[in-house]
Amino acid sequence: MRNPATLEVPAARAETTPTSAKVDVRDNETTQALCGNQNENLKLMERRLGVRVGQRGTELLLSGPADAVAFAVRLVENLEEMIRAGRPVYREDVEQAIKVLGRGTESLQEVMLGTVLKSSGNRQIAPKSIAQKRYVDAIRAHDIVFGVGPAGTGKTYLAMAMAVAFLQERKVKRIILARPAVEAGEKLGFLPGDLAEKVNPYLRPLYDALHDMMAVERAQHLVEQGVVEVAPLAFMRGRTLNDAFVILDEAQNTTVEQMKMFLTRLGYNSKAVITGDVTQVDLPTGKLSGLNHARSVLRNIEGIHFSEFSDVDVVRHPLVQEVIRAYERSEAAQKEAPAAAPPAEGTES
């Protein structure tokens, strides 16, 4: 059965009469890449699109409601073109391809063939959604880019990939990764050790992403040389960052003063990417998020770009998208619910 939360087939055609179609991929190697390990890509298509997919040699046999079969044929043809262009297709790529084609504005080739970086495992890192493609293009075109949206949309990961690519291409001389050291809704208490050991838990996600881009030994060597710096936001004060690609992660947890301080560090031949999720602010109650404030005051400045992501762009486990939507519905319902009436005078509350 179809999952309406993840399938976005255009609604213009409502034809559901059963039909069938055949797609000949023409060679065994491409067919195997398209089907995936143990046919996992075909099984995913069946679950998401509500069609049956059979294989006979290099032919794929599709059957089901007419609109779903037509969409499946288009999906298979687009994935085949990607494979022939040298882009591996994994299960998560099929998941994102359905979203891209379901929105009907761009082809997979326009969105997912623009490789940003080849990771240490020789895996291509490339956009997987329309919003990600526009985000990457914005980073190339602008010196300050904000990536704002829910968790799992690839904001920090793609920014990190762009930073490593810029370093490899000698467009910058160093990478600086920063985060505000704010506890995420729980008090951790006293942390033993020196300063580096105290702030390391806050910076761990940035190290994880960096190690996914390059070999751990190479990354460690660059850190030791100062070519790659991972530091809490407070370390940015008083500095001028020239010839650098600077990433500020979890920017929703900056104060207005911290955001202003960070943005005014940018020097010549540098880029800054600021990422955050405005629904996950961990600042004390009453403190205005620097990211929210920046969205309102910097919107119309030339050279600054805001890339907005939504739950549609989530590239983690499909259930992450459902979790985000469930919380959004709950928060919207709470805002719409009338405030409880105060107890009448003379009565006990």
Automatic annotation (TrEMBL):
Q: Which InterPro entries match?
A: P-loop_NTPase, PhoH, PhoH2-like
Key words of the record: ATP-binding, Cytoplasm, Nucleotide-binding
Which cellular compartments is it found in?
A: Cytoplasm
Tree of life domain: Bacteria
GO terms assigned for molecular function: ATP binding
**Start-end of Low complexity biased regions:** 335-349
Q: List, for all copies, the residue spans of the domain called PhoH-like protein.
A: 124-328
Q: Where is this region: Disordered?
A: 330-349
- Would you name any one GO CC term? cytosol
Q: What is the predominant subcellular site recorded for this chain?
A: cytoplasm
**Family annotation (Pfam families):** PhoH (PF02562)
Family per similarity comment: Belongs to the PhoH family.
PANTHER family for the chain:
PHOH-LIKE PROTEIN (PTHR30473:SF1), PROTEIN PHOH (PTHR30473)
Supply the name of the protein: PhoH-like protein
